[in-house]
Amino acid sequence: MASARRRLRHRWRLPAAISAVFFLSLLVLLSFLAPPLREHPALPDRRFLRLPRHRSSSHDPHLKESNVSRSAVVEEIVRVPHGDESARDDLWMSKLAVNYYGCSVPSNKYLDAKLTTYSDRYLMIATSGGLNQQRTGITDAVVAARILNATLVVPKLDQRSFWKDASNFGEIFDVDWFISFLSKDVRIIKELPKKGGRVIRGPHTTRVPRKCTQRCYLTRVLPVLLKKHVVQLTKFDYRLANRLDTDLQKLRCKVNYHSLRFTNQIQEMGDKLIGRMRAKSQHFIALHLRFEPDMLAFSGCYYGGGDKERMELGKIRKRWKTLHTSNPEKERRHGKCPLTPEEVGLMLRALGYDEDVHIYVASGEIYGGNETLAPLKALFPNFHSKETLASKEELAPFAAFSSRMAALDFVVCDESDAFVTNNNGNMAKILAGRRRYFGHKRTIRPNAKKLYSVFLNRNNMTWDMFATKVRAYQKGFMGEPKEIRPGRGEFHENPAPCICERSGSDARIDSSSISQNSNKGNISRGVSVPPYINSRAGEVDLLDLEYGDDSLIGRETTDPTDPDSTDPDTEDTDTDEALSD
Fold first, then answer.
1. What is the pLDDT of residue 288?
2. Spacing of C-alpha 49 from chain mean position
3. Closest-CA residue to 428 (of 490, 470, 377)
4. How would you label 77-115 residue by residue, b for 16+ Cβ within 10 Å and e otherwise?
5. Which DSSP state fits 441?
6. What is the pTM of this model?
7. Key word Transferase present in the record (predicted)?
8. What's the rounded mean pLDDT across residues 295-319?
9. Which H, E and C letters describe 318-330, residue by residue?
10. Alpha carbon distance 573, 320 (integer Å)
């Protein structure tokens, strides 16, 4: 009986096994019928793009590191459809932008600087880092002087950092405009008063914690200022709390968006570059690619270059003493790695930007050179930079000064129809906030954490599926109004207290009323600035206490994962955005 049951059981196993094999075969067949991204069928409006692609172990976990080299390029046929820009009317501007405008008007409690400034208090500032890191320091220095009721001496720019730029304040910014425009907010002088040809008193040098609150300045800096009368704060970047009284936040906006006007020489050259881009196309994208060796080294990410890449970037990484050993795959999975130029190009094509779009690239020397840029140029052949738009003779007055070259990129990126950033550094934050303030111009930040899985699996999906996922994940990263909640992120990136919403018929006002007039600092009716403010400087937000409010001056906490954080004991360890040689 038992043997009969066994024979019956074996009799059923054979059909079951055949069914399983048939089912698996059917799945395999169907997987081939659904073409991957790189083998998407050529429809009438689609074309082939032959892209040289680096095979990176960060994208292919099965790739042996020993077989990877920077020079090893695999030719692949990648089919990317033509975009239909006419089908998407939000590529170049937000439909909601007209309802918002930048506003720097303070409350009626704000007093003129002549009534608030003490004649025996002088504040000096030594900034730190590259151009845009220093810009945050200059902006916050004005507000710090206002809190302390002190006269501000024109800030000193950092001439000792990695960039070794000898430019002073007046060679980058219009110093006379800076002083006069803020005259009702803070008394500003070019240098300390002299008596008999000598400075009346030398400065007492110290440093405040990062994110120092109003209370922090009043309890830590003011007593020193009252005793010494002249105080110089060093390494002054991000030394002011993110949350302040509204009137002080509006002062921040007035300084950053209106008083810091580039010199005529820089502005005029920047305008020429913009004009040449406009002559080529009605709209253009400015891309802050940020794929230079210093950024990649700081990120701790790996891009498939083998031992050569690890040695080169590891050497640069030693500049930051506080950085811990990184896990490249974990960093990429958490969205902390810059996208490759190819990935940036694919993201933009998926969003709907066609190959005919002109791109201005603001960048220094790209790691891997032309080989790394080749896929992006294949996706967007109309590829420009200040070096291709201007002659060597035109750039000669700027070429030896990294901050002046960065300023040219800043001007063009600011005026672009769409600005795309590939990291969350200083230039990205400053421009994102500025573009929000001046009408929410299209600003795209890759949602790297979500896009990681899409790029990892892009060869296993159709182009339409890939594009759909990219567009879904980019919602909330396109520079739309109220995209970031007030108070979230750095103030320079999200100046919510300085953005007002129109109501009713006011919403129909043309958005040109809030133009910044080519970055020249002029204030139009949307952001007019009348006489000014005295803040409730004694108030403090409990959320800011975590930044060392109870610390002694000179102590600070640096974030080792932040490229803008610097070692307090090191003078030359700062990094900033990409600056051209």
1. 95
2. 30
3. 490
4. ebbbbebeeeeeeebbbbeebbbbbbbbbbeeebbebee
5. B
6. 0.77
7. yes
8. 86
9. CCCCCCCCCCHHH
10. 6
Instruction: Say if residue 542's pLDDT is above 50.
Output: no
The set of residues, in sequence order, having a beta carbon less than 8 Å from that of 168 and lying 6+ positions away, is 156, 157, 159
Pair of tokens at residue 34: 């659904």
* C-alpha span between 271 and 411 (Å, rounded): 8
Residue 258 and residue 529 in contact, taking contact as beta carbons nearer than 8 Å:
yes
Take residue 286 and report the two structure tokens written for it.
Answer: 């400015």
How far is residue 201 from each of residues 153, 191, 229, 231, measured CA to CA in Å? Answer: 13, 12, 8, 10
Handedness of CA 363, 364, 368, 370 (dihedral sign): positive
Separation of alpha carbons 446 and 420, rounded Å: 8
Please return the burial class of 466, using the count of CB atoms within 10 Å of its CB with bins 0-12, 13-18 and 19+. Answer: buried
DSSP letters spanning 381-404: --EE-HHHHS-HHHHHHHHT-HHH
pLDDT of residue 75 exceeding 60, the answer is no
Report the SS3 class of residue 189. strand
CB-count exposure of residue 22 (10 Å: 0-12, 13-18, 19+): exposed
d(CA 558, CA 564): 9
**Count of Cβ atoms closer than 10 Å to residue 472 Cβ:** 11
User: 258 — phi, psi (to 5°)?
Assistant: -130, -35
Instruction: From 394, 407, 493, select the one nearest 173 (Cα to Cα).
Output: 407
- Tens digits of per-residue pLDDT, 372-428? 999 999 999 999 999 999 999 999 999 999 999 999 999 999 999 999 999 888 999
3-state secondary structure of 37: helix
Q: If you write DSSP's letter for every residue of 196-245 in order, what string do you get?
A: TTEESSPPEEE---TT--HHHIIIIIHHHHHHHSEEEE-S-SS-S-S---
Q: How many Cβ atoms sit within 10 Å of the Cβ of residue 541?
A: 15
**Pair of tokens at residue 31:** 């997987």
